[in-house]
Design brief:
Length: 96
């Protein structure tokens, strides 16, 4: 894992790639694949600072599998690995 620490309410996610085959068994070229919307949380920030000065603890933690906005976040490459940095409100669900 890369040495990366997000700030505030940011979350670093390593994408889980889409399948290479369709449900019918057809192999899909890269241009036909959907952008991944599922990933594994690898790092979380300390939380957003509220008006009261307290920190709002994040709902997700490192190791969680999450669903997130298709067009959300910023893609970054660190040490040759690709990650997406998201705001906590761009995460829709934690997968069990």
């Amino acid at each position: 894992m890369a040495n990366i620490k997000p700030l505030g309410d940011k979350i670093v996610v390593q994408l889980i790639e889409a399948e290479d085959k369709s449900a019918g068994g057809i192999i899909l070229p890269d241009s036909a694949k959907k952008r991944p919307t599922e990933g594994k949380v690898v790092a979380v920030g300390n939380g957003r600072v509220l008006d009261s000065g307290e920190r709002n603890k994040l709902s997700v933690k490192a190791g969680d599998r999450v669903l997130f906005s298709k067009y959300g976040g910023n893609e970054v490459t660190v040490d040759g690995e690709e990650y997406t940095i998201l705001d906590e409100d761009q995460v829709y669900a934690i997968l069990n």
